[in-house]
Prior knowledge:
Blueprint: H1 2-17, E1 23-26, H2 28-37, E2 43-47, E3 50-54, H3 59-68, E4 72-73, E5 81-85, H4 89-103, H5 107-110, H6 113-128, E6 138-142, H7 148-152, E7 159-163, H8 167-175, E8 179-181, H9 183-187, E9 194-199, H10 210-217, E10 219-229, H11 235-245, E11 248-250, E12 263-268
Amino acid sequence: xxxxxxxxxxxxxxxxxxxxxxxxxxxxxxxxxxxxxxxxxxxxxxxxxxxxxxxxxxxxxxxxxxxxxxxxxxxxxxxxxxxxxxxxxxxxxxxxxxxxxxxxxxxxxxxxxxxxxxxxxxxxxxxxxxxxxxxxxxxxxxxxxxxxxxxxxxxxxxxxxxxxxxxxxxxxxxxxxxxxxxxxxxxxxxxxxxxxxxxxxxxxxxxxxxxxxxxxxxxxxxxxxxxxxxxxxxxxxxxxxxxxxxxxxxxxxxxxxxxxxxxxxxxxxxx
Length: 271
């Protein structure tokens, strides 16, 4: 099993390093449709339920065709990937989880680590404006990925728990030394047992709201959720969900919206 994993990660590193900077990520069904419309577009990689297509030079044409299929696209991720976002939130979530499971072994080579560290620090400083930080606090890193927040949070006296629906990402976060939960572990937590949560570069992906709602139910009264919205993507959906749950928007002290990390939001749970 270890040898298979090493071979897979090495092959993936080699393939991704040779890719261009317009890669379309979609499911098998959509990849087959695109192949019929544009046979010249190469299928770079195929994994169970997910395909990577090199659309370099054909991106604009493909985007127009996808609109006819009712498919939206994420903003470009990691300067390389576009992810198809179907209207069906369950299908969209499965695609997201498959995507991050595939790239988990090389995620750290694809992102700007220092930018992520900076954003996590920003979100925690905003949360600290509304909660009393102590060793008794439980703070959730919503969509923790490979556990970068574990490196940042050593300065805070609180328990940080990474939450991610992707097993591959959770495994790497755990290897980093982080305590991690999947959706099932979160569901087993008592109501009002979590002090705060932050989501760094998560909601622009338009994840299914089910996990967010589950987290909200376990957030203490007075607790907060902080998040950034890369290129302002996903902001309306998030705010709509928070309003439905009765969240109260707070000032993102000491932050303001910028073009680097996108908009910032803080919502508090009130009685």
